[in-house]
Specification:
Radius of gyration of chain A: 26 Å
Low-confidence stretches of chain B: none
Number of helices of chain A: 10
Largest interface: A-B, 32 and 27 residues
Strand order of the largest sheet of chain B: 1-3-2
Distance between the termini of chain A: 38 Å
Number of strands of chain A: 0
Shape of chain B: globular
Oligomer: heterodimer
Helix content of chain B: 55-70%
CATH topology of chain B: Arc Repressor Mutant, subunit A
Helix content of chain A: over 70%
Mean pLDDT of chain A: 84
CATH superfamily of chain B: Winged helix-like DNA-binding domain superfamily/Winged helix DNA-binding domain
CATH architecture of chain B: Orthogonal Bundle
CATH class of chain B: Mainly Alpha
């Protein structure tokens, strides 16, 4: 049976880990537990060993790069994890009854374009950018991730990175420009194929905005509830 | 006793082989023990191999995070006195991955034996 480290010693480990450039709290917890368990084992085999000497002995077993490689590997894996979760969440949007709603919206967009002209494209684009900016403002002001400081946790930092990436895709994807280039000054009627392409483009874009503003933040809430409850983040 | 330079080569070879098999080792241990934490895995490997295999923290955690990222492992956190501990366990995908990995490893060992010691076949 090993003696557990005191709260003060555990706090010292948190400071030690922070001094070694581990600034993410979620990573700190895992490293601190590893160091604490190893120190307890060292002290169990050599009861006269002081806490500080045991810590130096345990830290000496880490590679020369310290904890840096661990953080890099974790960051890479978390980015992959979020990408996979976002993609799955996006695919989940294509289930009943959401898919029925999408078909309804897509039909509306198609007829709007079919009976309209390039002005209709401009209108759809304003809706896309307007709702994207409104959703982004909502996320930035109301989201607990931004309020709590996403830079403090590696899992939220990687989450926000992917969220920015999704934002950039929606923002910069401008299929409408192709049609303006063809007719910069005039309103031009669109062909059936052009209407279909634009309908698919705007339906996917609106779906992405929905996922960006509602589905993805919901995933993060679930993750915090299931995996990171111990960090005490208020949702 | 091996000369010093040969011992160095063998130790290095051992490390390389170990690094290549780390995922299989971790998955197998988690399958046998339901759930484990990082330090426990390093100690278990030492214990099972009579201190022959030493998994370093620098190799173990990236592997655990990689497997977690792939959806092979999942983790849960529990309070242990005045700190929290992260436990890793296999997901359903991890269970099926284990069967494939063990089969691959068995085939690999069999083929290596055929190459290194043809008489055994």
């Amino acid at each position: 049976m090993t003696n557990q480290l005191t709260k003060e010693e555990v706090d010292m480990l948190f400071s030690f880990v922070e001094d070694k450039n581990v600034r993410y709290k979620d990573v700190q917890f895992e490293i601190v537990d590893h160091l604490a368990t190893a120190i307890e084992e060292e002290q169990a085999t050599d009861p006269k060993l002081s806490f500080h000497n045991a810590l130096q002995r345990v830290y000496g077993k880490f590679p020369i790069t310290g904890f840096a490689m661990m953080i890099l590997a974790k960051e890479e894996e978390l980015s992959k994890y979020w990408r996979r979760r976002f993609f799955r969440a996006f695919l989940d949007c294509f289930t009943y009854p959401k898919v029925a709603f999408t078909l309804l919206v897509s039909t509306f967009i198609f007829f709007m374009l079919d009976y309209g002209n390039t002005d209709s494209v401009r209108f759809l684009d304003y809706i896309k950018l307007g709702s994207l900016i409104a959703t982004s403002v909502f996320i930035c002001t109301k989201s607990f991730v931004m309020n709590e400081g996403h830079e403090n946790y590696l899992f939220t930092k990687t989450y926000v990175k992917i969220l920015f990436f999704v934002f950039a895709i929606i923002f910069y994807a401008r299929i409408d420009l192709l049609f303006y280039e063809a007719a910069p000054m005039h309103e031009v009627d669109l062909s059936g194929v052009q209407c279909l392409i634009l309908t698919i483009f705007y339906s996917v874009a609106y779906y992405l905005i929905y996922a960006f503003g509602f589905a993805f933040p919901e995933i993060l809430k679930q993750e915090i509830y299931n995996k990171y409850n111990y960090l005490g983040i208020k949702i | 006793m091996l000369p010093k330079n040969l011992r160095y080569i063998f130790t290095n070879m051992n490390k390389k082989l170990l690094r290549g098999s780390l995922e299989t080792i971790v998955i197998k241990l988690l399958s046998d023990n339901q759930e484990m934490y990082g330090y426990e895995i390093t100690q278990k490997v030492k214990e099972l191999t009579d201190d022959d295999f030493k998994i370093t923290e620098g190799a173990l955690y990236p592997t655990l995070h990689k497997l977690e990222g792939k959806g092979i492992l999942e983790c849960s956190t529990r309070s242990i006195g005045n700190r929290f501990r992260k436990y890793y366990s296999l997901t359903e995908a991890g269970q099926s991955e284990l069967v494939i990995m063990l089969q691959d490893m068995e085939d690999y060992i069999k083929n290596m034996q055929l190459i290194l010691n043809p008489r055994l076949s």
